[in-house]
Amino acid sequence: MTYKQIAEEMKKRMFRISPSSVRRFLLRKPRKKKDYSPRSIPRHLHEGVKALVDGLYEQCNTQTTQQIIESVEHKMGVKIKKDVIANIRAELGLYQYRVRYGHAVRIVNRLLRIIYVEKKLEAGEHFLIHSFSDESYFVLGRESSHCFVRSRAAAIKQAPKHAAKKLIARIQKKMKQVLEKRGEPCPD
Length: 188
Known about the structure:
The chain is mainly α.
């Protein structure tokens, strides 16, 4: 088929294109994408910085960009910009996801918790210095909510690592029932 015949065929399919455009499109050579090489890092240090950034995210994937920049500057003596870190993350295949926390209390352990609490209530414990909710993690203070990982599954943490995060058990309803059964007032 000639370029003119291709252009006519495309015109029948509602694409208006000239024979010269068909020729340019068919003769175009695919260009190899140039490897990323930032100007703010000397070329001979780029691979080392890239390996360091990868290692830092392996240690703790919830580090902020500013923390990574400070670590690179401290360890390698190279001051880099935020966009360089973003490009290195893309090069490494790291994606940003929200941190998700899996259940630390398994279903098989919930019954054991209720039995324990019932025994404590029968022994006179009122849990006056405890807070109860619906088995959630409460974050007290600022904590990283994003992480940089290679897959979505890696963004799920099994347990809280920060001391300010408290796992609160859902037993308030059961506590009220036991206290009402005994005829004692429920603390609010």
